[in-house]
Amino acid sequence: MKPMPLALFQKLVDQAAELGVRAICPNGYGEICTLPQPMLVEYFGHLTSRDRHFRILINTNGNRLT
Questions:
Q1: CA angle, 26 as apex, 36 and 33 as ends, to 5°?
Q2: Residue 22 has what pLDDT?
Q3: What's the pLDDT score for residue 40?
Q4: How far, CA to CA in Å, does 4 sit from each of 12, 45, 56?
Q5: How close are the terminal C-alpha atoms of the chain, in Å?
């Protein structure tokens, strides 16, 4: 398994916004916090840059959080 390409993630987020999706849970098959921080910034930056703000749900064990 590997991270979803950013371009695909952005396309899915844009489509979700067009459809009126209210919440997004970007976990996939594993722990979201295993992604490098710069990558997380890009992914979450796109989620929060939309005209329609999503409720972002994150499931994590918090192991890598400081």
A1: 30
A2: 92
A3: 86
A4: 11, 15, 17
A5: 25
